[in-house]
Write a structure and sequence with these properties.
8-stranded antiparallel β-barrel, 9-stranded antiparallel sheet, single chain, about 40% strand, 19 strands, disordered C terminus, alpha+beta, about 400 residues
Length: about 400
């Protein structure tokens, strides 16, 4: 694999002037292992040594080592200035693009974001392959600029996110513990923290080739309450609404709509609603437009381990949680959910179902390595609360 770094300033790249002589190109050799995929490349800050510099179609020898790829800032200022001096950069250019050449195929990646140690390069598309004799140089630079301008509106926030089947959630559930009622405080037979740690460690190893812990979104801890209203009628509205208090005094509202437990379900999420607990019941009626009944609320503790495919940009959360109702039954439900969460790519989401199966198989392998007993089941929080909720409270009819 041959690598080229393109140094330029953002205003030069995104200007409307089409002269492609704006760049300093550096032919580099990888000095450290890179995580390479069709959709993204993750390179440590010191991943490359320079072989030579190309400026105005002229080669100049350069033996600069450990070229700094980080963002401009106080921590990296000295290293950035050293790299700039070694490459002869006088206009403040940054390593905006990375081109990989394999045989006669070349692919362009844009410097997208950093995590303090590495840089994430996001694929923009294929370009004419540069060669040692600088063939196709101008054609390559023109295509670099065209792709950068074309995709700029999608990624100018540096947080591109897409969704496959918008307003639907895709998740597979695994139940570790299911206790409906207990005379004393019930304890889950597994440690969700230990399982989460094992998942996180495995995601950062070579157990899942072609995948990484999602860049800058590797691990999350959540601990929150939910107040639940089941929607029992009409059939098209069936499911449940979950009201989750926010720390700012507002409410997040999730509406999951389904007639039976399944892996693919409708879901909408609204944040920052100025709805207080005494208005939850009325809001449930307004949103559902149907018949609702209140079920026991519950407290959920969950750990999320997020993984991302370098080939497709599809990202999945592997959630491990415990939910306990507020009804005094000492019931609990401990599960893991493998859930598709987003796609980071300039292309439309693809291979989501295939990637889903890959991550599910990975999660199950970690569960087995931890000695955790589980049952794969679509058993939902709604089914759990229905089972706990005996007898039911009277239904409330929408008006």
């Amino acid at each position: 694999m041959i690598y080229w770094l393109i140094y330029a300033t953002p205003e030069d790249v995104y200007s409307f002037e089409q002269n492609a002589k704006w760049a300093t190109i550096v032919n580099v050799a990888a000095r450290r292992s890179l995580a390479v995929g069709r959709n993204a490349i993750v390179a440590p800050f010191d991943a490359f040594d320079a072989r030579y510099v190309v400026r105005d179609a002229v080669k100049s020898p350069c033996s600069a080592q450990a070229l700094y790829l980080g963002e401009i800032g106080p921590k990296g200022l000295e290293r950035e200035q050293t790299t700039a001096a070694q490459l002869g950069l006088t206009s403040g250019g940054a390593p905006m693009f990375l081109i990989t050449v394999d045989a006669d195929r070349a692919r362009l990646y844009q410097n997208y974001e950093t995590d303090g140690q590495s840089t994430y390069f996001l694929a923009l598309g294929d370009v004419p392959a540069l060669s040692e004799d600088l063939g196709w140089l101008q054609a390559c630079l023109q295509e670099v600029k065209r792709l950068a301008l074309f995709h700029g509106p999608k990624i100018n926030s540096r947080r591109i996110r897409q969704k496959w089947k918008f307003d639907y959630e895709l998740e597979r559930k695994y139940t570790f513990a299911h206790v409906l009622r207990a005379a004393t405080w019930s304890t889950a037979p597994v440690s969700i923290w230990a399982i989460s740690r094992a998942l996180h460690d495995a995601a950062r190893s070579d157990v899942l080739p072609g995948w990484i812990s999602e860049f800058n979104d590797q691990f999350h801890l959540w601990h929150y309450d939910s107040e639940i209203f089941e929607v029992t009628d009409p059939p098209a509205a069936q499911g449940y609404l979950a009201f989750i208090p926010q720390t700012d005094g507002n409410t997040t509202l999730k509406y999951k709509r389904f007639q039976e437990d399944a892996e693919l379900r409708y879901e909408s999420i609204a944040h920052h609603l100025p709805v207080q607990p005494d208005r939850y019941a009325q809001k449930a009626l307004e949103v559902s437009g149907g018949t609702t009944r209140r079920l026991p609320g519950f407290r959920r503790t969950r750990f999320d381990v997020d993984v991302e495919s370098l080939e497709t940009g599809n990202a999945f959360a592997i959630v491990v949680d415990i939910s306990r109702p507020f009804d005094g039954s000492n019931a609990l439900l401990s599960q893991s959910e493998v859930e598709y969460i987003r796609t980071r790519s300039v292309a439309d989401p693809k291979d989501v179902l295939a990637d889903f199966e890959t991550v599910c198989a990975f999660a199950e392998s970690v569960f087995r390595s931890c000695g955790a007993s589980y049952v794969q089941t679509p058993y939902s929080k709604l089914s759990f609360l229905r089972d706990v909720h005996q007898p039911s409270v009277p239904e409330v009819q929408a008006v």
